[in-house]
Amino acid sequence: MESFSRFSNQQATIKNQPSSVRGLAIFLLLLLLAACTAERRKTDAELGLTPQQSAGRKVYDAYCDRCHEPYSSRGKQGPSLKGIFRRSFLPLSGLPANDDRVAEIIRFGRSKMPGYGQVLSQQQVEDLLAYLHTL
Q1: 80 to each of 22, 26, 65, 85, 111, how far by Cα in Å?
Q2: DSSP string, 26-42
Q3: Hey, what CATH topology would domain 50-132 get?
Q4: Distance set, CA 2 to CA 11, 98, 123 (Å)
Q5: Which of 129, 1, 112 is nearest to 57 (CA)?
Q6: Domain segments of the chain as ranges
Q7: What is the DSSP string of 38-91?
Q8: Is residue 109 left, alpha or beta, with left meaning phi > 0 and alpha meaning psi from -120 to 50?
Q9: DSSP characters for 94-118?
Q10: How far is 103 from 29, CA to CA, in rounded Å?
Q11: Where does residue 125 rank: exposed (0-12), middle (13-18), buried (19+ CB within 10 A)?
Q12: I need a labelling partner for 114 at 20 to 30 A (CA). Which of 6, 65, 128, 135 fits?
């Protein structure tokens, strides 16, 4: 009788475990979805980008996105570039927020940012600047 009772208790524990595991999985999924800030990436057409801005977006994706957020005020390793040209001055350096200064930083780097003057052509820098103006 005792072995039947023990077997019955083990069976009840096993039956309860999947539902608690299932409940935990649902809870974690809901928590993940609630914490998720990612949204679908808009196409170039949805953003209304010109061909030059579109080319600049490709440069941004290849070289800048790993450290700089394009559409968020939250930075990654480097500062966010959202609204970079809407400000009078760049956030970390205090330099004027204009094409000349930003192009200089892109080419030669600054602080922790490496320079891309040996990697990007003049046209790619100009395309990138055109895209940055859309952020």
Answers
A1: 39, 34, 10, 12, 15
A2: HHHHHHHHHH----PPP
A3: Cytochrome Bc1 Complex; Chain D, domain 2 (1.10.760)
A4: 14, 83, 83
A5: 129
A6: 1-35, 50-132
A7: --PPPPHHHHT--HHHHHHHHHIIIIITTT--SS-SS-SSS---TTTTTSSB-T
A8: left
A9: --B-SHHHHHHHHHH-BTTBPP-TT
A10: 43
A11: buried
A12: 135
Find where tokens 């019955």 sit. 8
Residues in CB range of 95: below 8 A, 6 or more apart: 89, 101, 105
Measured over the CA atoms of residue 67, residue 69, residue 73 and residue 79, the dihedral's sign is: positive
Give the amino acid at 134. Answer: T
- pLDDT tens-digit map of 55-99: 999 999 999 988 887 766 555 678 888 899 998 998 888 889 999
Closest-CA residue to 63 (of 133, 118, 2, 7): 118
Please say if the pLDDT value at position 129 is more than 90. Answer: yes
